[in-house]
Amino acid sequence: MSTTAPPSALPDTHHDGHPLRRATDRATDRETVHTRPMRRAGDVVVTRHTVSLVVPARNEARNIPWVFEQIPRCVDEVILVDGSSDDATVPMARHCLPTVRFVAQRGPGKGNALRTGFAAATGEYVVMIDADGSMWPGEIPHFLHFLDHGYDFVKGSRCIAGGGSLDFTRVRSLGNRVLLALANRLYDASLTDLCYGYCAFRRSFLDALDLRSTGFEIEAEMIAHALRSGLRIAEVPSLELPRRSGRSHLHAVADGRRVLRTLITERPGARASATAPAEERR
Q1: Which of 34, 129, 216, 253 has its CA 20 to 30 A from that of 14?
Q2: Are residues 123 and 50 in contact, defined by beta-carbon separation less than 8 angstroms?
């Protein structure tokens, strides 16, 4: 009668004759040399880029504390563009973040505020965010991820999986859908959201964006010029929150008309067709 020896009785050898390793065995230095993958000559070491956060604000003293305490550590510079606030926006910002940089807004309107902040930014990446608490600063690393991986302009979208809005009125939602459809048609794009100002871009492309708008339409102008310039654009999901305190400075109908005008006048070929008659008259 044949018997099978228990596993403990079998010799501790591999099929090639070498002894099996026990859990308590330690690898020798020679054996651990190649435990990590060898680096190839063509491998690129990813370096961290500096980040500037531009925050336009006007009478947002009650919202600034929540916004500033949510700013992630990856942000190197915070620029508060003050639009002649009547409340304690500036001292509150200094109290919450002593390293904040203050810049006085040049001219009225959100467009002027953002252009002032962009001109003052020193980071390689520039992120823009509202001061009313409707955008969560904790989403900034998602925007930076796409910039780190080759994209030039990254915009938040409330209309893709993982995004949404807790502040969409029927008028705003309808207007956004209509203007978005027009933008995709005029610029041969496939964007999912338009009238949302949570964006990030490489500061080296600031001149290519060629921003001139003074009001809320600057958000549409940025996207239009990014598309027209051939920048690599990515959308990331973003959740729009309700304004934490105070009243919005947005006027849906009036600002919607300005966005419409911007999309039409900045469409590809529009400038060439507009300047052609002037050149013919010379």
Answers
A1: 34
A2: yes
